[in-house]
Amino acid sequence: MIGAIQGLGRRTLDGLRGLGEAVLLMLRILRAAPEVVRRPRLLIEQLYVVGVLSLVIILVSALFVGLVLGLQGYYTLVDFGAEDAVGTMVALTLVRELGPVVTALLFAGRAGSSLTAEVGLMKATEQLSSMEMMAVDPERRILAPRFFAALLAVPLLAAIFSAVGVFGGYLVSVGMIGIDAGAYWSNMQNAVTVQDDILNGAIKSVVFGFLAGWIALHKGYMATPTSSGVSRATTMGVVHTSLAVLGLDFLLTALMFG
Amino acid sequence: MEAAENRDEMLARVRGLCVRRGGRSIFDGVDLDIRRGQVTAIMGPSGTGKTTLLRVLGGQLRPQAGEVHVLGEAVPQLSRAELYALRRRMGVLFQSGALFTHLSVFENVAFPIREHARLPEPLVETLVLLKLEAVGLRGARDLMPAELSGGMARRVALARAIALDPALMMYDEPFAGQDPITMGVLIDLIRRLNDALGLTSVVVSHDVHETFAIADYVYVLADGAVIAEGTPAQLNASEAASVRQFVDARPDGPVPFHYPARSLADELTGGRGS
Predict the structure, then answer these.
(1) Smallest Cα–Cα separation from A230: which of A247, A216, A248?
(2) I need a labelling partner for A57 at 20 to 30 A (CA). Which of A165, A227, B135, B224 fits?
């Protein structure tokens, strides 16, 4: 009994200590922002790795999500004779929720995991240590450009996701089912507002980009420098990012659209 | 006056060093002097904290107690910025080489130069080629680290470590796992670079013959303390049992063959037998 309470206390303290470390690491990374601006080449390289290389999975997923939304939207709305509103439904679902959330989840699996593994392996093979001894701060040289790349890439990918998804909905509802194209687009144009929908969706995706980059890099940087340690860190990075994104999405939705 | 001269002669000085990690004491009152211009060897059986000592000298590990002065600076008391300034004057050769796997040999050696100096590209190229020439690998400039043998990787890492012309060079087990030819090359390089570039070198190793061949002064560590020190000749002549065990590579002696455990009879009989 005492042992169980001790274990609970130890785990709580370890968790809090880990959170404190993560916050301090983030503050140090944010302080390195001017250096990232001064050396844009490092940022561009990472934007290519985490952003451009994630495009295929984002594009394909977005197209299928849009196709399914178009179908499901039509099947539901046709019962109420409101099938012309399918464009509105597809667009609002994507811009407000699925665009930012699914992009962040895919990003965590595709780019976040590779960031964690890369940084963890650099630590395990003493590359980060050797950088420190060359008087080059790995937090500024390695972590900061990767974090800011994630922060920029997720909102851009989410925007692309929403746009391709809307196009997928169009393919199904207009091309396959035969809803009027004018109704699809004009209903969407009337219902979706920049301030309430697009801006709030963009804010969400920036928050998710922040989380995805932060968690992935922190897990890699703090990984136990062994092969099992790096593999565990990679798994935990994806799991924690996914849970944090889903939990925070609920909170943000309640705040923004409540 | 004599004290001032003495300080000037010492590039690094360690007094009363105590390091504990995870409840285990690694160093308990270690005193060391690294003399300017010399090759100082830190030797001892595996697990005596030789690498930990390098991490303390480089400021990567803060000791629980004791003074650590390197190049006139009290390392544990330095701020992050001061520590990074000091590290520009140090070079470390890691046991694994620790080359950046995504960069070519040339870019690995150019890395510290590009990070710390804004030099025109032709000058960077000249510097890198000179460093690679010093370790005999100018021809390997375009290879990736995965294409190098272990010995070559270590030589590239050595070229990278001396890229900024450090005052203090530290080698972590430079001979471990190397074939005899590579070992000979590394022995020759460490001594030659030390003398030609006017460096001061610290070599952490447990390879007695190789290290004795190049060291000016040797410290032998065991059980968290310096158990012997002197020139290789003095240590070779030593009668102390702990020194003899190490120098003659005897399997058992003051450093026991067995990791501490209860007796084998107890273990096998579950404590019932006698």
Answers:
(1) A216
(2) A227
